[in-house]
Design a protein that fits this description.
By secondary structure, this protein is α/β, with parallel strands linked by helices. The chain has twelve helices and eleven strands. α3 packs parallel to α4 and α7 crosses α8. The chain is globular. The protein starts with 13 loop residues before the first strand and ends in an 8-residue tail after the last helix. The N terminus and C terminus are likely disordered.
């Protein structure tokens, strides 16, 4: 995505992050007690100190830390020191991850959750399998960690949306929960408002969180209206796009996204409308309709930028790398 103003078309009834339209230019900020955090995965090309400085300059106080900035191989003492760096800058670590827990192996699960405990990460955002949930629950209880299973859309064979997570964890320990990615959930064809509503009646922390999301969205409206847009920053407005005619089509979620994008483009001919998706077929269909479609760029890996198995170091580089890593490399890198 090369545009500085981002459009995310989530289809009828879905939340959308879109550039400010004329009707929304006067929208005010209504954050209330919403705690905005930066996922340091977005800053993975920067060192820990650089990432901390960037987040601090943004005026944001909370972070979700990725292993780029607190590597798995660090000792407990080094993880404590790294955490103190964030704290010294006035940043609070609220969660860590996404941690890929794709192996049904107890040592593998224990290794990563013990890392979270040693790092002082209270909530682990992760992507497990169906078969290792029991192991994750075991160590979540042992280390007193909250587990937030991240849904990754239609390509995710295990957890494409929120309902697929709740189905698996609803009878497990209350520490087992959901990190609901609204964009990925919308790509599966669900109505994300209904997705939240489904959880709110639970007498668990998940139910409490769902009720809180609904209350906060309601408070953020403050007379402006989600359909008109609520300003989140200088360029982005949170909107709920709903079209009664489109909503009656049902069926193919991708087709509804294309229909919604096409209608928004026709209604706003002077503004760019961009569908951002990792679904190649959706991008091809969009192009065939004359719609602009792009892939995510933030998670792309350029093979040429990856290290090979060996690297020749000068004496000064060897000392620096050795001091930082102390030869404690993860068996799971």
């Amino acid at each position: 995505m090369t545009s500085t103003r981002r459009n995310f078309i989530a289809g009828a009834g879905a939340l959308a992050a879109a550039p400010a339209l004329p009707a929304a230019t006067t929208a005010e900020h209504h954050w209330g007690d919403v705690r905005l955090a930066v996922a340091t995965y977005s800053l993975r090309k920067f060192s820990r100190s650089q990432a901390i400085s960037i987040v601090k300059d943004l005026g944001i106080k909370y972070v979700n830390v990725k292993s780029y900035h607190m590597p798995y191989y660090l000792s407990k003492e080094d993880l404590t020191a790294a955490r103190k760096e964030f704290g010294k800058a006035g940043l609070t670590i609220v969660s860590g991850g996404n941690i890929g827990l794709g192996k049904d192996d107890e040592d593998f699960v224990r290794y990563h959750l013990e890392y979270a405990k040693n790092a002082g990460i209270p909530t682990v955002v992760c992507a497990p399998t169906h078969n290792n949930l029991g192991l994750i629950e075991k160590y979540a209880k042992k280390f007193d960690l909250k587990i937030a299973i991240h849904n990754h859309g239609p390509e995710d064979d295990h957890y494409p949306n929120g309902a697929s997570v709740i189905k698996r964890v609803k009878n497990m320990d209350p520490r087992m929960g959901l990190c609901l990615d609204l964009g990925h959930a919308a790509r599966t064809g669900v109505d994300v408002i209904e997705e939240i509503d489904r959880f709110k009646h639970e007498r668990t922390e998940r139910g409490h969180n769902a009720r809180e999301v609904s209350r906060r969205l309601d408070a953020m409206r403050n007379g402006t209206g989600l359909s008109k847009g609520i300003a989140l920053d200088d360029d982005i407005v949170l909107r709920v796009y709903w079209d009664e005619v489109l909503s009656k089509h049902g069926g193919d979620a991708d087709l509804n996204i294309l229909r919604a994008a096409n209608k928004i483009q026709n209604d706003n001919p002077d503004r760019p409308v961009v569908i951002i998706s990792k679904d190649i077929n959706l991008r091809l269909r969009a192009d065939a309709m004359g719609l602009r479609a792009e892939d995510y760029e933030s998670d792309r890996v350029v093979p040429a930028e990856l290290y090979s198995d060996t690297r020749e170091l000068t004496r000064s580089e060897e000392r620096r790398v050795g001091k930082e890593c102390r030869s404690r490399w993860s068996p799971y890198h």
